[in-house]
Every structure is written in structure tokens, then in C-alpha cells.
Input
Amino acid sequence: MLTPQQVIDRYYLEHRCMLLEIGAFLDRYNAATEAAGHHADNTHKLDLLREAFQQLQGPAPSEGHAASLLQLFAKV
Amino acid sequence: MQIIQPHYHAIARTAQDYERMAMSGVVAVAEPAFWAGFDRRYPETFIDYFRQISEFEPTRAAEYGIRHFCWVAVNPKEAENVALTREVLAAMPEFFAKPTCLGVGETGLHKSTPNECEALAAHVELAMKHQQLVLIHTPHLSDKAHGTRRVLEVLAGLDVDPQRIWIDHVEEQTIEPCLDAGYWVGFTLYPVTKCSPRRAVDMLEKYGRERILVNSSADWGPSDPFTLQECVLEFRRRGHSLQEAIEVFHNNPCRFLGQNPKFDIEPLRLESVSR
Output
């Protein structure tokens, strides 16, 4: 098993990249709503992603972040 | 669709990459001088490297019907060696005369030290003196914003033609000041540490396609020449026309690189013909 420091150092850049993609995805949605003049008719998937961001900011649930998120995304 | 790969480190890649690029529409690549993964100690090492990218590599690319062009420079990571930089700069005009050399690159900044800034200025001044194009590397990751500002400050203190200078590796936080100052900019598509194909298309949609180049760099590190084709696909999947894609991925490189008459590939326009 990796040490805590190894986990951070080995995976930091990869997850930095993933977060940039999420940021760009939200920017893309905002640009699309601006161009269209309205929001999407069904924002359920976007709402779930926002709920996931909230979950990740809190302490890890007993089953772990990944399992918890999978249960959340099962709502789609 | 015909594609030009304007920033490609061919000597770090295999012949299979050339073959696959040719099969996916790449008609030309331009190879800037790059860091070797270690700091070189001798000017002669650079001179042989410049010979490799200006004499040998075009023959390897030609096996697959791809035109190969190059740039020469001391990489910013090696600019701390002031004596070496001075000697290599003195040898560079010989390479400007090569039939496939387009100019000075990639110069730029890595840690934005005083020696790097002086080397950048010396490279740009040499290029302007010899009517060469310039390709400028901007730093990675946490140094990106500061390094790009320093690049713009160094350029602002020189007598340059912004239309002949391409500032590469721009991202969302650095594109605007570079475009506003009149320079060309480049998006470099890396799997992890630079821009992604989707983010590149986002920026194309936000800023338009004028004075923008897209490349995958593709060196000896984690990189992939086909991120460029991924970007073409993403661009087309969002509904942009084939001609618009040609403008970005073929014609813009023609427009910038074609300022050097050695780059003689002309922009393309689709034309319908009757059956």
C-alpha cells in the first residue's frame, strides 16, 4: 500500500486534470445557457453532479466516497 | 481531412506515429528544438541536434508523405548556462538558411529567472534581425500565469512584430492577454498536464479561431500525437462545419507558418463539384 504522501504525490496531477475538466464542463453549460437564453429542460444530471461535489467536501461516509457517489449516480 | 501538426517533437516518436498520422490526415509537422531530458553541456550537441531536425528528420517524415519543418533554439530549461546559450545563438543563423527551418523556437521561460528572460530576449532579437518566426514556450502548471506575464513583459520591451510570434501552451487563464497583445497563441493538448481537446474546443468557441493554433506537442514524456485528432473530432461533434475545422487545424498553421516562404502549403477551401 502507498503511504499517504505517495497517494497525494502520485495522483495529484491526474486529479487536478479531472477537476479542470469538471470546471470546464460547468463553464460549457453556462456558456450554452447564455447563448440559448434559458437553462436545460431537465437538469437532473447536473443537479446530481452538484450534489456529488457537496458530498466530496464533507467527511468520507462509512462506505467510502466512491461507493456513496455510485449510489447517488444510480438515481439517473 | 488534412491536418497540420504545428508543434511536434518527432525525434522522440516512432515511425509508426508518422504512419498513423499520415493515415489520419496529417500532411505536415513542425518540430521545435526541445529539452533532451537532461541539460546539455556542449554547443556542438545542439548543433548536431539542429542538423538532425533540419536534415535527417525531413527524410524520415517524407517516407510517409509528411512534410517536416523545424525551429532552432536553446530550450528555456538550459538558459541558465549563459555561455552555452551565447555560443548556440551564434550558431543558429546557419540553420535559418536550411530549406525547412522556419525560425526560432521553442524559446521562452521555465522558471522565469533573470537568465531565462535575457535568453528569451536574445532569441527574439536574433529572430527579428533575421526575419524569422518565433515560437515561445510558456511554463507549466503553477508557473504558468506568472511566466506568461513575464513573457509578455519581455516582448513588450523589444521591437517585435506580434504577428510573427506564437506564444504556446496558453490555457484559460493566459489566453486573453496574449491575444489582446496581438500575438498568435497555441493550445497544447496533453493527456494530463496541459490543455485537453474539450477545453481547447471550449476556448475556440469562446475566442473564435483567429490567431489560434492547436497542437499536441508529442514529445518523449506522457503525450499523444492523436490528441490533435481527438480535438478535431470534438470540434466536429459540436456541430462545427468541415470548413471551420479546416480553418483551425490546417489553414491557421498555413497562415502563421506561411509567413516564412519556406512553408509553402496553401490554405484549403472545400468546393462542391457537380456529379
Q: What stands out?
A: Chain B touches chain A at residues 141, 172, 191-193, 196, 198-199, 202, 205-206 (CB under 8 Å). The first helix of chain B runs from residue 15 to 23. The mean pLDDT of chain B is 96. DSSP finds nine helices and eight strands in chain B.
